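Thanks for the sequence, V.! I ran Oligopeptide transport ATP-binding protein OppF right away. Repeating your input here for the record:
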Amino acid sequence: MPPLLQVENLSIAFNNTPVVHNISFAINAGETLGLVGESGSGKSATSLALLRLLSQSAQTTGNITFSNENLLTLPEEGMRRHRGRSIAMIFQEPMIALNPVMKVGTQIAEAYTAHHPGESRNMIKTKVLEAMLAVALPEPERRVYDYPHQFSGGQRQRILIAMALINRPQLLIADEPTTALDVTVQAQILNLLKEIRRTHDLAMLFISHDLAVVSQIADRVAVMQKGRIVELAPTETLFRNPQHPYTRKLLASAPTMHTDRSAPLASV
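Predicted structure:
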């Protein structure tokens, strides 16, 4: 069975300055691939290229095949059918991604009506409440009328996940979805994503700079350095026996309960 998403020889440049160099990876149906690397390694540019959301100054080459279609050559109308429907994205900063002066129910509804313009008002409300329940937002019948500032950081991230899930996508791109959250809320969001993946049979590209977070959710991990994928392996294999020097440095730079606090952390 072919992969759900196949990226081949993807390169990205901005104003002729390369930022991603000839990378290739695949994601199977129901699988989570972790894409990890330090800031500036090209992770977010890669995720935006999958949805053709890069600025007009970007030059993108290669192939991105999703459901037997090359997304890079698809007409814009065809691409709009995929965005938010078969491929959805969660961004890392919910207060920026959400409109502060619009009720959250309206924002979740917009994600649905963009692909179902003729749907009845009752059905739209039903879908919004179902999406809020799916991400364990409390009292959705009441809170659907609240504004983003009335929710905690973790709850705002759940709202973004509800918006991403309302159209039942096949692939979810999660770009640093836990970065702005404290460790307790971070664990809750990771558990939620794992549960949603199981119940929705969802494939996921999970992007993070934190190997410890990626280890909790990914089936395979791709390590990115300076726009190149330097290592790609099953999660357990990569953590037990990393092959690339950069991967080993990333692992060594993460403190553990046994880290010598008098010694400096490894630098990548």
